[in-house]
Structure formats: structure tokens, C-alpha cells
């Protein structure tokens, strides 16, 4: 970019001590000038060393990282706190469970400005550790596993229904409203749907790719899948029309993968069915 404008990064966090360093290193390595980035972490009453880790990292690297408190602990409340406190007219919503390429902020902002969109972001590349984590990352990268969600399945650049962790214009929040604080899940998707429903635009730049670290244990995957499925139903009830049929496909797919994984331990032929379902 020839001329950099000031932006605010808003990052909700809660008990992220194992992943927050990778996120902060990504911020440290951004091509965007540090004096043009306001960095806001909104902590949801973490019980681990998340806040201490942020403070130590900021001190060691000479960065100003502001930590705000989110007593309600859920992401939409964190985002609204950050939006209200943020000083600048462009806000980039980041996730603490992810790592970002060096040009991520610059590319998101550039795409936002060049397309006239209200929100602009890129693709998600899911990463997992160990056999279970790697298998689940395959699930989250397949059309069945994520209901044909474009930002996870290498969609082409263009206007779309939603993007994760993008750059927003402040005027979008003023015009279309803040995050719905009733939603523990799906708050990003609901907001993007509300923007589009009222005439706004969401843009996906397929050249922008971030790494998201998925769950690595069967118990963690089961819990996440159950919560996602539950909140799809709740979201559809609270915000009629915000969810489509494709959002309910992942739960069925993930449960079938989990079931086949367990059965294949005792009945070897089911392991081949599991591999076939994952496309391996």
C-alpha cells in the first residue's frame, strides 16, 4: 500500500495460553506499520496464563497491546467491547486460535478499500496435530464437513455470504448493528448475513490464507461438534432465516466420522469406510 491508514485489531481471547504466542508473533511480523495498528485483546476471564503471556510478550517486543476485560466471556460481547473502545475507522477481527501470514492485515485492508465491501477476508487452512487432529482438519476442509463453506473449501475470489476474521468498516457496524450478544456461536455468520440482507457486501480474497488450529482430541472434537450443532438450531430460532440447510450437514458428517473412528478400533473394515469418507 502506498499510504497506510490506522487500523484497530480486535482479538477475543479466553484460556489461549497454548496458542496466543503464535497469534502475537503473527501480529509482530505483519508488514503493516506497527504505529498504524492499535492492538486490542478482549479477555473473557481467562483462568490460565493468557493475560500474563500477552503482557510479557508485549514488554519483550516493545509493543503496546491493550487488554480489555469481558466478564460475560463470550465472543460477540468481546467484539462489541473492542469495537466500542477501538479508535480507528477500520477494524480487523482476529482469532487467537490462528496464525496469520505477514501481509494478512495489509491484504485485508487493501481488499476492503479496493472492492468497496463492508467486510473483507480470506480463506482458512485448518491445521491439526496428531492422528486425530489431522483427521479432523481434513473434515473441516471438506465440503461435507463444513457444509460447502467457501472460505474453508478454496472458493474463488468474489463477493460471498461470509468470511472469517476480516477487515470491517466502522460505518458497517453503525449502519447494520453490532454483534448479536445472544449468540455464543455463529455470531460472525449472523452479522454477515444481516449486512448482506440490508444491502451490504462481503468480499472473499482467495489469495489471503490464514492457519486455524483445530481441536486435537476426540473429546474436544465431540464437544465442539455438539455445541456447533446446538447453536445452529438456537441461531435459526433466534434469527429466522440466518442459517441454511448446509449448516446442519457438518454435524451429521462429523458425528459419522467420530462413530466410524470408534467402531474401526474394534472392526477393522470400518477403518476403510472412514478413510473413504475423509477422501484419503
Explained architecture:
Helix 8 runs antiparallel to helix 9 and helix 9 (249-266) packs antiparallel against helix 10. The protein has 280 residues and is α/β, with parallel strands linked by helices. Strands 1, 2, 3, 4, 5, 6, 7, 8 and 9 form a 9-stranded mixed β-sheet that branches. The chain has helices spanning 20-28, 50-61, 75-85, 104-115, 130-139, 170-176, 187-197, 218-238, 249-266, 269-278; strands spanning 7-13, 37-43, 65-69, 90-93, 98-99, 119-127, 158-159, 167-169, 202-213. The protein has 10 helices and 9 strands.
Quick overview:
With 280 residues, the chain is of the alpha/beta class. It has ten helices and nine strands. The relative contact order is 0.14.
List the helices and strands and how they pair.
Layout: E1 7-13, H1 20-28, E2 37-43, H2 50-61, E3 65-69, H3 75-85, E4 90-93, E5 98-99, H4 104-115, E6 119-127, H5 130-139, E7 158-159, E8 167-169, H6 170-176, H7 187-197, E9 202-213, H8 218-238, H9 249-266, H10 269-278
Helix pairs in contact: 1-2, 8-9, 9-10
The name of the CATH architecture of the domain at 7-133 and 147-214 is: Alpha-Beta Complex
Strand content: 15-25%
**CATH homologous superfamily name of the domain at 7-133 and 147-214?**
Spore Coat Polysaccharide Biosynthesis Protein SpsA, Chain A
Q: What top-tier CATH class of the domain at 7-133 and 147-214 fits best? A: Alpha Beta
Termini separation comes to: 41 Å
Key phrases:
280 residues, 9 strands, nine-stranded mixed beta sheet, alpha/beta, globular, Spore Coat Polysaccharide Biosynthesis Protein SpsA, Chain A
Amino acid at each position: 500500500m502506498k499510504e497506510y491508514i490506522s487500523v484497530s485489531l480486535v482479538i477475543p481471547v479466553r484460556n489461549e495460553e497454548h496458542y496466543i504466542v503464535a497469534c502475537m508473533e503473527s501480529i509482530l511480523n505483519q508488514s503493516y506499520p506497527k504505529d498504524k495498528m492499535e492492538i486490542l485483546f478482549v479477555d473473557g476471564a481467562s483462568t490460565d496464563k493468557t493475560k500474563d503471556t500477552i503482557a510479557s510478550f508485549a514488554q519483550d517486543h516493545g509493543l503496546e497491546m491493550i487488554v480489555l476485560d469481558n466478564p460475560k466471556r463470550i465472543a460477540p460481547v468481546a467484539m462489541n467491547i473492542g469495537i466500542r473502545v477501538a479508535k480507528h475507522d477500520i477494524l480487523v477481527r482476529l482469532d487467537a486460535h490462528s496464525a496469520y501470514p505477514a501481509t494478512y492485515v495489509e491484504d485485508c485492508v487493501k481488499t476492503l478499500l479496493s472492492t468497496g465491501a463492508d467486510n473483507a477476508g480470506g480463506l482458512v487452512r485448518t491445521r491439526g496435530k496428531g492422528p486425530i487432529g489431522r483427521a479432523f482438519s481434513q473434515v473441516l476442509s471438506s465440503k461435507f464437513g463444513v457444509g460447502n463453506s467457501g472460505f474453508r473449501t478454496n472458493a474463488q475470489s468474489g463477493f460471498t455470504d461470509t468470511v472469517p476474521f476480516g477487515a470491517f468498516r466502522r460505518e458497517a457496524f453503525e449502519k447494520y448493528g453490532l454483534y448479536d450478544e445472544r449468540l455464543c456461536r455463529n455470531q460472525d455468520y449472523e452479522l454477515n448475513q444481516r449486512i448482506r440482507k440490508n444491502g451490504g457486501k462481503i468480499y472473499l480474497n482467495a489469495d489471503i490464507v490464514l492457519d486455524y488450529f483445530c481441536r486435537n482430541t476426540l473429546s474436544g472434537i465431540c464437544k465442539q461438534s455438539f455445541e456447533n450443532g446446538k447453536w445452529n438450531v438456537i441461531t435459526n430460532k433466534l434469527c429466522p432465516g440466518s442459517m441454511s440447510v448446509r449448516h446442519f450437514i457438518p454435524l451429521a458428517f462429523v458425528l459419522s466420522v467420530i462413530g466410524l473412528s470408534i467402531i474401526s478400533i474394534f472392526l477393522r473394515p470400518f477403518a476403510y469406510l472412514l478413510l473413504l469418507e475423509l477422501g484419503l
